[in-house]
Amino acid sequence: MTRFAKAHACGNDFLIVEGECDPELAVRLCARNTGVGADGVEFLQWTGEREGRIRLANADGSIAEISGNGTRCVAAWMAHQKQMRAGETVRLETDAGVRGCELVCVNGHRFEFAAGMGVPKIRSKQVRLSDGTQVDGVEVSMGNPHFVIFVDDDSFDAYQRTWQELGREICFHTDFPEQTNVEFVRVIDTNKIEIRIFERGVGPTTSSGTGTCATAAATISRRGGSPRLLVRAPGGEQQVEWEGGNSEMTLTGPAELIATGEAW
Fold first, then answer.
1. Nearest CA-CA partner of 38 in 11, 64, 65
2. Residue 222 CB: number of other CB atoms within 10 A?
3. What is the pLDDT of residues 191-222, one digit of tens each?
4. Which burial class, exposed, middle or buried, applies to 123 when counting CB atoms under 10 A from its CB (0-12, 13-18, 19+)?
5. Beta bridge partners of 260
6. Do 229 and 85 contact (CB within 8 A), yes or no?
């Protein structure tokens, strides 16, 4: 039997399994109809009282460097286990580096964290689609890869494609041999943006922590967005703070524990 906890951050759901990373197990557990169901499995190995090493296997078994939402979900599980209070911090080592998550508040099984997300790396990029269409975007690394596309319409469709179709084509584009996460961003005003996400290894998702950060970084650097930016996704809102340059980005958002259990 495999013991697990399940949590979500703005609808982006994860299983937390203590032990070494097992991609085959992740595929089986993440199956929506024949398994427990999740976007990915965070495999946690405790390394201290409030410290751990995590590795993320996506629903398709691929390994991701980091998930901002998944990291917060693990932090919530650890905070629950250790009965942490506001102001205390969890440190988690990911494949993208160490991330500190400070507990902001607790309400039952709902936790809010302010997490350090590293320094984004940003550059403009064009992608040529199979029909010759040139797509202008912003390539952002948050320790994992993102391609951000600005849109004007609240449908988020662009280049005569639905955002889901365009996201899939770019995710698997030859320019990205290890695939990429794709985000579509609509600027509401200088303090707020709205996004849609096509996540590598998963597909369309309700939220993404690193996707939230990537779109905020692109908006602040390319569109003059506020250094304190509210990012709205279908699953909810998260707050990003970034002064630009080599300063670290901070992401504040919720994580809620849903259940614990055992799977065959």
1. 11
2. 15
3. 999 999 999 999 999 999 999 999 999 999 99
4. exposed
5. 5
6. no
